[in-house]
Structure prediction request, 512 residues.
Amino acid sequence: MRKVKRDVQKLTMSEERYRLIAENANDLITILNAKFKMEYFNQPIHQRILGYGDEDLMGMDLMAIVHPADLTRLLEEGKRNWKRQEGEVEARFKRKDGNYIWLGLKGNFFMDKNGNKMVLMISRDLTERKKTELQLRESEKKYRLISENANDLIAVINLNDKTFEYINEATFQILLGYSQGDLIGKTPSTILHPADRKKTVNQTKEEAAVGEGLLEARIKKKDGTYIWLENKGRSFIGADGQRKALIIARDITDRKKTEEKLRDAFEQIRRQNIELKELDQSREEFYADVSHELRTPLISIRGYTELLLHSANLDPTHQQDLRTILRNAQRLEHFVNEILDFTALKTGKIRLKMDSFRISEIIAEIQADFQFQIHQKRLKVEADFGHNPKLLLDRLKITRVVQNFFTNAVKFSRVDGKILLTSSVAGDHWTFSIRDWGIGILKTDLPKLFTRFTKLNPSNQMNLDGVGLGLAICKKIIDLYDGKIRADSEGLNTGACFTFRINLNLEKNLVE
Prediction:
């Protein structure tokens, strides 16, 4: 009797222990008979997960709470598993509140003490996992729809074996002619232009270190032709834990063709520019040679003409003819000298001297030279030289610029007009300007004033004579001092103002 009592106590303790385990487990534990009716269930867990109490569950037909859409599949799986003695299945079951949850069922078949076949079933709530899977499927569906309808090529490459894992097939077929079967499992290098492979490999290694990059390469289409693609890549870790790269590529063939045309055009322009410079150099040399050749006979013509004018017994007609010859010889000599001076300034074959003078001294000399013209037009000349400091510059070159400005101001001023000269020194810079209220300059002509051989619109009556080098020479002189020169006018009949500004602290006083 004592032994039987001990055995009963052991059984009782064992039953209590397993009941404690079952009723505190997180999974549903159920024993079903051959008719799928419940004979045991861990009530607290069933109550928490499904909401049913003891009176609801005892003897309940499990199939009665299976979602109608899952019932047939569950019965078929049950029959197969009945023969195998075990099995797993997932299905939706109705809670007492009417909502459905997903359960993952794992069953094992056994015989009870009476020889009846029973099923021990352990079920786990899969609802959250199913929601996540549904969200993932919806997300995958959405992004697949975007990918398959994108205009750009989209691919995923496994960075371990360097092979394609995914391509948006529709776009690949449209742009390149490849299907998934042509590329999945293949390396991108098989469709790279041979000339781009080394560059692409090296650049990919560098970009892999930072996780993203951009490269351009030629890709072979299925028909054997090549197109240019701009490839943007970003590396990531896939769900399988492997490093991969997302590639988005865009067809830039037309852009590359345009760039090639631009390069060809720029190269052609560069060659033409070289040819023009050579032609320009030849022309400058020709002008210089011609000017030198003209100088000698001009000097002779001027000399003999002056000598003849001092001869006795010349009648008035002969004197007038000789003066005409002398005037035109002097004019032609002036043109020749301008060409020679411009050539020397342009080629840099000139030295800047260091003379000490005041601008008022230069203006006084120029006004004396133009006294007749000033008096003839009854011009009023005003000057503002500020404190009139001494300047250390090339007096001859500066005189030439100021004289050119003054000549134009006198020439294009109207009778009873006014000319204003201003000079000021601020810091290391000297600014000089001459303002007149004469016929003015067309605004469209202002940008051309300081270019060589410029002939402006005849309507504004400028450059009626000369070869158009005067202002171009002025600009070259001011450039030697790293200065700026400009002309301003509001148009015809508004007058004009010519200004230059030069650096008084220029370190290089010699230009070679």
